[in-house]
Input
Amino acid sequence: MPQGEHSQLAGAPHASSGAHAAQGHGGHHQYKLGDIPSPWLLFSNSLLVILVLVAFGYRTTRKLADIPRGWQNCGEMIVEAFVSFTRGVIGPGGEKYVPLVGTLFLFIYVSNLWGQLPIFHSPTANLSTTLALGLIVFLYVQFVGIRQRGLRGYLGHFWGPVPLAGILLFPVEVISELVKPFTLAMRLFGNIFGEDTVIIVLATLGVAVLPQIPILPLQLPILILSLLTTFVQALVFTLLTCIYIALQSHHEEHHSEAPVHATS
Output
């Protein structure tokens, strides 16, 4: 691909209509959809998503009542869904991880949808954002492991129960643990970036096919499908987060229950 065409594709703004996409390919774009957008673009869109979530949280808790109605009822339904989800994946006591899991899901889901709005950019369509989210999960999971097992037990679980096998097992386990934030980041980034790119290409193609008509919504089926896929990607990210937490938090429970089962 020529250098000029590549830069135009990377610099095209995400848009819900062919008109916005055409403006991007005409050279008058302000937004980048690519590996490294401007820091202000990434920060501003992420900040807008955060402000939306804060406003929603404030609205649902502004006037709490014993019998929830309206916004409060909606907020409580969401919290109850997260409590059931974390308990189902992590187990009893999983509700204490709802603040992390719920925040991750809502931020990722709204960020995924944010790029469907004209002139806006999905923060999760950039590797910087998804890698930051992956590192947050990674550091928190390690914190849970150290808190549950102690530093010695945490390091010992990489070695395994057989001392000689641990010589080979330890580096493999450490590498597999270090890879987790990158797999989380690349999975989310790849799906959202690919989805946004397809929408841009279809919107631009619609303008090219019928230039007399400003909008030919060839991208409409993908936009409708994205309402589902954006939810699925947020769900997969939070599901894997819960699984990683469960693997760390249940270790001590299994060891403490083993002698009981042996003597019964």
Summary: The longest helix spans residues 163-209.
